[in-house]
Amino acid sequence: MDLLHLLDLFFNHSLIGLLLLIFGVVYKIFPPKNINVFYGFRTERSEKSKEVWDKSNIYCAKKIIEVGMFLTILGAINLIVLPKMYSLFSIIAAGSLLIWVIVKTDKFIS
């Protein structure tokens, strides 16, 4: 297996993690300034005040970065252990962890 093929497989396995990592970094650098309906961590609790909105979005960005790093590493491990199951595995792991981020952030602001 050549290096280019190995890198291609790594990006296939870790794509969701890398995308979440990039999104999390952008979200941290450019957090939503005001409560809005388009961008940010939007729950009933997070929209109660500007202070809670800011606090929840900073925390959520941090958790998305953590999930992105975790999924990137998990994708690399999955490449070795289950190389033909990356799509299903990545979707299930990402979906579960994003639900965890929502629950964790909502508990953080309560």
Automatic annotation (TrEMBL):
<protein>
    <submittedName>
        <fullName>Membrane protein</fullName>
    </submittedName>
</protein>
<keyword id="KW-0472">Membrane</keyword>
<feature type="transmembrane region" description="Helical">
    <location>
        <begin position="87"/>
        <end position="103"/>
    </location>
</feature>
<keyword id="KW-0812">Transmembrane</keyword>
<feature type="transmembrane region" description="Helical">
    <location>
        <begin position="64"/>
        <end position="81"/>
    </location>
</feature>
<keyword id="KW-1133">Transmembrane helix</keyword>
<dbReference type="Pfam" id="PF13630">
    <property type="entry name" value="SdpI"/>
</dbReference>
<dbReference type="InterPro" id="IPR025962">
    <property type="entry name" value="SdpI/YhfL"/>
</dbReference>
<feature type="transmembrane region" description="Helical">
    <location>
        <begin position="12"/>
        <end position="30"/>
    </location>
</feature>
